[in-house]
């Protein structure tokens, strides 16, 4: 996967975000460059599963890229 760029979209299904971040980590470990794309809900909503700020921090740590929140 080295040299492969993948757009990885995350939406407001907050109970599944943790599982998707694990998959993102696996892709990065295989050499993919991840461009995270997040919905408005992920960008702004705090839930019992975590705050928007925490999710964006984790996404940045994994992908080494800021999440795209607008198009």
The helix-strand sequence is: EHEHH
| Main beta sheet strand tally, sense and closure | 2 strands, parallel
Main β-sheet, spatial strand arrangement:
1-2
Output mean pLDDT: 95
Discrete helix count: 3
The count of strands amounts to 2
Binned, the helix content reads: 40-55%
**Low-confidence sequence ranges:** none
- Note the gap between the termini: 26 Å
Approximate strand percentage: 15-25%
Radius of gyration: 12 Å
What structural category arises from helix and sheet content?
alpha+beta
Write up this protein:
The protein has 71 residues and is an alpha+beta fold. 42% of the residues lie in helices and 17% in strands. The protein is built from 3 helices and 2 strands. The chain has helices at residues 17-29, 40-44, 52-63, and strands at residues 5-10, 33-38. It has a two-stranded parallel ribbon. Helix 1 (17-29) runs parallel beside helix 3. The longest helix is centred in the N-terminal third of the chain and has 13 residues, at 17-29. The protein is globular and about 35 Å long.
């Amino acid at each position: 996967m080295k040299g492969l760029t993948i757009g990885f979209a995350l939406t407001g299904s907050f109970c599944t975000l943790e599982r998707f971040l694990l998959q993102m980590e696996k892709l990065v470990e295989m050499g993919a460059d991840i461009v995270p794309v997040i919905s408005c809900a992920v960008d702004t909503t705090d839930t019992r599963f975590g705050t928007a700020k925490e999710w964006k921090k984790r996404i940045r740590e994994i992908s080494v890229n800021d999440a795209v929140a607008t198009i």
